[in-house]
Amino acid sequence: MTALAPRRPWRGRWIVLAGIVLVGLNLRIAVAAVSPILDAVRVDVALTDTLVGLLATIPVLSFAVFGSLAPLLARRFGLEPTLMAAMVLSAVGEIVRSVTDTPAGFLGWTMIALAGMGMGNVLLPPLVKRYFPDRIGPVTAVYSMAMAFSTTLPALLSVPIARQVGWRLTLASWAVIGLLAVVPWAVVIIRSAVVRSELAAVLRRAPTQTSALAGRHRAQGRVWRSPLAWGLAVMFAMNSLNSYVVFGWLPVILTGSGMSAEAAGLWLALYGILALPGSFVVPPLAARMRNPLPLVLGFAVCFVVGYVGLMLAPLDGTAVWIVFLGVGPSAFPLVLALLNLRTRTSAGAVSLSGFVQGVGYALAAGGPLLVGVLYASTGTWTAVYAFLLGTVVVLVLAGVVACRPVMLEDTWGARPH
C-alpha cells in the first residue's frame, strides 16, 4: 500500500527548521532592543528628540527599501546565501552601533542592522515554501512566534542586563542570535546535495497545502500586475500601520486620560504579548481554509471594538480594549501564511513576499507621523480614531481581494518577450 504522507515528515529538515526559527528570532531584535534603554543611549550618543523620532521611523523605511531589494539579490545569489549575508549584515550593524559615539553613526549602523532584518523578512516565506510546502501552516506559526518573541525578549531582558554590563554590551549581545542563525544555513549550503536529496524523497509523498488551487499558470510574470499581490500589500500595510500607531501612541493616549506612566507601560507590554497566540493559531487555521476572509473580518471587529472603547472610556474597561487591540494585528501572520498558500513555487513566493512587504511597509511608514499631525492640529483624539477606523475599512476591502482562492501565477500577467 502506498503511503499518502511520509512516515518521517521532518527527516532531513530539522536543520532547516532550526535556521528558520533562529532567523525569525532575530528579525525584530535590533528594533526592540533600543527602546527599553533609550534614556541611557541618549545620554552617551546625544540623540535629540528629532533624532529619536527618526530612529523610530528607520525600521519601517529600512524594511520597505531593503525588503524590496531582497528578491533581486535572491535571484542573483540564491535564497540561502542571501539570507546568510543578511544575518551577518544585521549582526555587524548591531555590534558597530553599540560602540559608536556619534548620532550619525548610531543611526547609520542601526539602518545597516535593519537592512539585514528587512531582507530576512522577505526571504523567510519563500524558504518555508521551498523546504516545507507540506507544512506551511505549522512552520509559519513557529517562525511567527519566534518573531513575536524577538519583540518581547528585549523588553524583558534589556534593562536588567544593562544594569549589570552597560547599554553598549547589552546592544552588542543581541547580535549573537543573528550569528547563530547563520550556522544552520551554512550547513544546508555545504550539505546541499544531501539535504535536497533527502527533502525530495520526503516531499514526493507529502501532499501540499494548495492542491485544491492547482491549475495552469504562467511561469513568469510581473507581480505588480496581480490584484492578489496588491490586496495582500494593502492588507499588510493597514495591519502594520495600526500596529505601529498603537505601539507608538498607546501610552500617550492612556497617560493623557489620567493613567500613570507605569501603568500605561504595562498595558503596552500586554499589547505586545498578545501577538503570541495569533502567531501560533492563525497560520495553521488559514492553511485549512479555502478562503480565510472570516479571519480578516474577525480581526477588523477587534480593531473597531478596541478603538471605540478607548475613545469612549479609556480608563473603564482598559483591559478589554487592549485585549481586542492585541488580537487585531493577527492579520500579520495571516499574510505571512498567504504568501506561501497563494503561490506554487518558491520563486513566486520570493516575488510576492518582496512586493507585499516592500509596498506594505512603505505605505505604513507615514501612519504614526500622520497620527501625530492630526492630534497636534485638532487637540483631540477624535480625528485620530476616525482615521484609524478608516484604515480598518481599507483592511477589510483589501482582505476581500487577498483571501480569494486564486494563485499568484494565475494573476500576475505574462512577461513580454
UniProtKB/TrEMBL annotation:
Q: Which SUPFAM superfamilies does the protein's record reference?
A: MFS general substrate transporter
List membrane-spanning regions. 12-38, 50-70, 82-100, 106-124, 136-159, 171-194, 228-252, 264-286, 293-313, 319-339, 359-377, 383-403
Q: Which residues form the Major facilitator superfamily (MFS) profile domain?
A: 12-402
Matches recorded under InterPro entries: MFS, MFS_Cyanate_Porter, MFS_dom, MFS_trans_sf
- Which keywords does this Swiss-Prot/TrEMBL entry list? Membrane, Transmembrane, Transmembrane helix
Q: Its domain of life?
A: Bacteria
State where the protein is found. Cell membrane
The protein's GO terms of the molecular function aspect are: transmembrane transporter activity
Per the record, membrane topology reads: Multi-pass membrane protein
Q: Which GO terms describe its cellular component?
A: plasma membrane
What name has this protein been given in UniProt?
MFS transporter
